[in-house]
Design a protein that fits this description.
268 residues; histidine biosynthesis; lyase; alpha/beta; TIM Barrel; Imidazole glycerol phosphate synthase subunit HisF; 13 strands; Aldolase_TIM; eight-stranded parallel β-barrel
Length: 268
């Protein structure tokens, strides 16, 4: 029997508040993280992701109390990412009550951290977040991905909120993080993030078909159909969204009802 597909609200946190923007810019306040997460809990969310988007050491003190509050009040898995650079950081976040940690820039700069974290805490605790951008300049050794208009591009891993190109091929990096012990990949396309034009299906499918661990599609949800596309066309195991939930455009339960009606197995 196929595994049920997950719906995951994502809360970007800055100074203890949920914020949302487009392409990580133009941030506006969306509320208290624990209150919002509790609402999603009631709506039937399968998990919640907290991302500390300021991702600097001085804000670590802000996110820990938020995690502790969430762990006390919620009954659903909690993934926390942003500014996690060491085994000690991971330990601190898991101790505060998170079920999983999400590594992004630190995984790129120190791939051994993935391996060490997986060995120390178990693969089920380690999510590697991969932010990508399409690069039309094909070069030798990269994985070609065909876009809807027939053009061939490769997808490059970017860090620092999409501003820093790394030169890493996204498909190959996804395969490497799996080998190193990541239990899941959280894939965000800078092409679609915050646009409400739908997930970036070509790269979501390309990575989902080449790894054996769950891929969470992220970036671009605007309609109920976009969730269906993420699962049916992108082959994702989970779909993550933020603003459509935060601003009440749709509820998790509405999404699940819609998906069930279109033949996608979801936990009700």
């Amino acid at each position: 029997m196929p595994l049920t597909k997950r719906i995951i609200p994502c809360l970007d946190i800055k100074d203890g508040r949920v914020v949302k923007g487009t392409h990580f810019e133009g941030l506006r306040d969306a509320g208290d993280p624990v209150e919002l997460a509790a609402r999603y809990n009631e709506q039937g969310a399968d998990e919640v992701v907290f991302l500390d988007i300021t991702a600097s050491k001085e804000n670590r003190g802000t996110i820990i109390p938020v995690i502790e509050r969430a762990a006390d009040e919620l009954f659903l898995p909690l993934t926390v990412g942003g500014g996690i650079r060491s085994i000690e950081d991971i330990q601190q976040v898991l101790r505060a009550g998170a079920d999983k940690v999400s590594l992004n820039t630190s995984a790129v700069t120190d791939p051994d951290l993935i391996t060490e974290a997986a060995e120390r805490f178990g693969t089920q605790c380690v999510v590697v977040a991969i932010d990508v951008r399409a690069n039309p300049e094909m070069k030798e050794g990269t994985t070609p991905v065909v876009l809807a208009d027939g053009r061939e591009v490769w997808y490059e891993v970017v860090t620092m909120g999409g501003s820093h190109p790394t030169g890493l091929d996204a498909v190959q990096w996804a395969q490497e993080v799996e080998k190193r012990g990541a239990g899941e990949i959280l894939l965000t396309s800078m092409e679609t993030d915050g646009t409400k034009a739908g997930f970036d299906i070509p790269i979501t499918r390309a990575i989902s078909e080449r790894v054996g661990i769950p891929v969470i599609a992220s970036g671009g949800v605007g309609t109920l159909e976009h969730f269906w596309e993420g699962f049916a066309l992108g082959k994702a195991d989970a779909c993550l969204a933020a603003s459509v939930f935060h601003y009440g455009e749709m509820t998790v339960s509405q999404v699940k009802e819609y998906l069930a009606g279109r033949g996608i197995q979801v936990r009700r």
